[in-house]
Amino acid sequence: MTSQLSPERLLGVGMGFWGAKALLSAVELGVFTRLGKGRANLAELTEDLGLHERGARDFFDALVAMKLLDREDGVYGNTPETDLFLDRAKPSYVGGILEMANARLYATWGRLTHALRTGRRESEDPADEDFFGALYADPDRLRGFLAAMSGVSAGPAKAIAAKIPWRDYKSFVDVGAAQGMVPVTIARAHPHLAGAAFDLPAVGPIFEEFVARNGLSDRLRFMPGDFFKDKLPTADVMIMGHILHDWGMEEKRVLLAKAYEALPKGGLLVVYEALIDDDRRENAFGLLMSLNMLIETPGGFDYTGADCQNWMREAGFAEIRVEHLLGPDSMVIGVK
Hints:
Arc Repressor Mutant, subunit A, 10 strands, 2 domains, Rossmann fold, 15 helices, alpha/beta, 7-stranded mixed beta sheet, 3-stranded antiparallel beta sheet
């Protein structure tokens, strides 16, 4: 048996940060955006991106080997995938989350071992417990963070728009809506719906700008507030996406109780995350996301579908079910 074993997979996982950083640097440098304007040879790309010739060829060819670029007769171009999702000039750009990963997460994940020993977050200044307060107070960081959340939410938003029986409802509110990817996607797919976004006041102008660009200002409105200090808005359907995992157990229960209070009888609560599978063996992304919450937040953690069902049941919800969305993301739905 041991003679058939190979260390290849272990080395691949352990050195996986090489490929990750190559992609993150390519996004930072604007490789895919430059090639979105037209194909280019090595000399043109090197000059346009301001790179030194020593590493340029290996860098671009590594991206080719990783299937992130293609190359024909010495001329480089985007793949269909990177052209659609990583060209900043396209509305389908989802690289915001990668920009955030490059600017913050890549370095802070280097302190994972310390976080595992202390149980304390490692992001930014560990002595500052108000992570979100600091984030929302910096306009540039906030805009980048909200764009990153749009990248994370784009796929789940389409699935939620398709899987919920929206014909049975007239209104919805997205709690912690960020830039507005989920409300925009749902409203575009279902013209009869009126929607709202509930988030801290600093988010308002960014949300309204995004909604206006998508031509939906007549059906989507922003409602400023703090979901721990204020009552949640009422609507037929309430959505909480990538919200509960930011907080500890006490805060999770508070938010679910406030959602139950705000919804009308028969109203729907939709919670979506990279839910960990109930056996905690398969959804590696969800488990790694929970470690990210260890690094990023004072008490946040991810959870299984069964966990969320139990918490929602405690809050009073009924007819609770879990549905897969796509990739690592699933939603938990409960009826008041």
